[in-house]
Design the sequence.
């Protein structure tokens, strides 16, 4: 009997201690918030000198990882201080927990799509072009009435006459839908009207690996044709040597663009192996140039180098997910994901080395130094870098007729900051930049449509927006 009473007392005491610990932690989160955050964000989290934290709007990244880094390392240019030396990581997570619980209590939800946007030159009407998509990644247009949209899990969708078709294209190549991998870019051949070619980039996995091990993967390019809603006549136009495949599931790239001379350019991220970006015997961390049928130009800068990947056009690129050809000069421009800080806009030229990871303006995500160097002879400087990172993604020069004042200006999408920026570039210099879309969702792609409208792909909430000037 005494033994049972003793066990009961021990259990009761343990329960009391656990409950007390949980209550203390909850109080710590609230108390830590009041001590460190309330002065700017308000004692009730509804905002003050800084924005509300419970209105469903996250201007600098909604995910927990972004929130953690914003608190720890600050957003210096906006007056948000770093708490790295003030708060322990566990204390930051307690504050985050308190914020998330407060969001739930008030039922915070992301506001609906803004119907009208204001910019320096135009008021813009915003309409939903397509919705209900699962992680859309890219968009391109076959003609004025037909658009193709990739969904990262491995589906190619069609929007016909303004309506998203129920059935995806059949027989699309298998992808490894894990991490950042999946079906990535789609690009329509400039001569589609006569040849019908459509190009896809995706993460390809090897299936002959020993059981129990994660199979390695790499970015692969394929072209095919669409007939009766089916992918046919497909051809692999780029596949890296299988020994270069990696078991990581991030930093695949990949964008596809065509220049007026008939070359096809595409990017492959360094796949999480930074040092590979400096090695021309490996495909990752590079921009590649091929012909549209997959053959390799002998004029490529490393074509004659022993053991080099012949398709390499530039190296030292961390993870390019935005590429565009200037409509007048034919120059290749790219936006590149940096680490924490140091997203880059680069003018890509043959044989040049863009420095990753030897030089960078960013840090590791844990705040440690990658390198002390931002410059080194023989390594290219970015045209522009963003610090902190906006998570640049999707890129296009505006070439339509609706926004006449924006002719040839560069549209830059951003995932983390949920925005589209408009850059005015003259003589390889960014003269001005303006945010024209903000807070609508994570921008994965942005492009000029054949109708002159601007199309913005939001992988969250799975929507494509169409922007047109508002009639006054």
Sequence:
């Amino acid at each position: 009997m005494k033994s049972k009473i003793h066990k009961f007392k021990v259990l009761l005491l343990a329960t009391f201690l656990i409950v007390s610990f949980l209550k203390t932690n909850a109080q710590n989160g609230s108390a830590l918030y009041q001590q460190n955050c309330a002065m700017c964000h308000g004692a009730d989290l509804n905002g003050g000198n800084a924005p509300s934290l419970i209105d469903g709007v996250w201007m600098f990244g909604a995910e927990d990882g972004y929130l953690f880094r914003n608190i720890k390392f600050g957003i210096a240019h906006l007056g948000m201080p770093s708490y790295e030396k003030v708060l322990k990581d566990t204390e930051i997570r307690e504050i985050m927990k308190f914020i998330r619980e407060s969001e739930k209590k008030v039922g915070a939800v992301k506001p609906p799509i803004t119907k009208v946007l204001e910019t320096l030159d135009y008021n813009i009407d915003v309409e939903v072009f397509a919705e209900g998509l699962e992680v859309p990644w890219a968009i391109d247009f076959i003609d004025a009435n037909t658009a193709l949209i990739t969904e990262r899990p491995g589906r190619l969708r069609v929007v016909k006459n303004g309506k998203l078709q129920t059935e995806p294209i059949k027989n699309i190549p298998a992808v490894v839908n894990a991490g950042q991998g999946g079906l990535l870019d789609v690009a329509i051949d400039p001569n589609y009207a006569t040849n019908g070619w459509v190009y896809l980039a995706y993460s390809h996995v090897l299936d002959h690996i020993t059981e129990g091990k994660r199979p390695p993967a790499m970015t692969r390019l394929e072209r095919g044709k669409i007939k009766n809603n089916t992918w046919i006549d497909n051809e692999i136009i780029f596949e890296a040597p299988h020994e270069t495949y990696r078991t990581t599931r991030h930093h695949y790239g990949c964008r596809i663009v065509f220049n007026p001379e008939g070359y096809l350019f595409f990017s492959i991220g360094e796949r999480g192996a930074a040092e590979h970006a400096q090695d021309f015997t490996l495909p990752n961390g590079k921009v590649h140039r091929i012909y549209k049928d997959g053959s390799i130009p002998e004029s490529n800068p490393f074509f004659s180098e022993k053991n080099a990947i012949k398709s390499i056009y530039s190296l030292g690129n961390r993870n390019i997910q935005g590429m565009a050809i200037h409509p007048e000069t034919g120059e290749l421009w790219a936006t590149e994901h940096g680490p924490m800080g140091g997203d880059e806009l680069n003018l890509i030229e043959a044989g040049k080395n863009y420095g990753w990871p030897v030089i960078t303006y960013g840090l590791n995500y844990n705040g440690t130094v990658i390198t002390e160097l931002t410059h080194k002879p023989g390594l290219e400087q970015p045209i522009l870098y963003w610090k902190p990172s906006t998570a640049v993604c999707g890129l296009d020069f505006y070439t339509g007729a609706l926004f006449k004042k924006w002719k040839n200006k560069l549209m830059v999408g951003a995932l983390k900051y949920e925005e589209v920026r408009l850059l005015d570039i003259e003589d390889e210099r960014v003269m001005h930049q303006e945010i024209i879309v903000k807070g609508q969702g994570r921008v994965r792609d942005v492009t000029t449509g054949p109708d002159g409208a601007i199309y913005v792909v939001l992988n969250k909430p799975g929507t494509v927006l169409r922007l047109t000037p508002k009639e006054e």
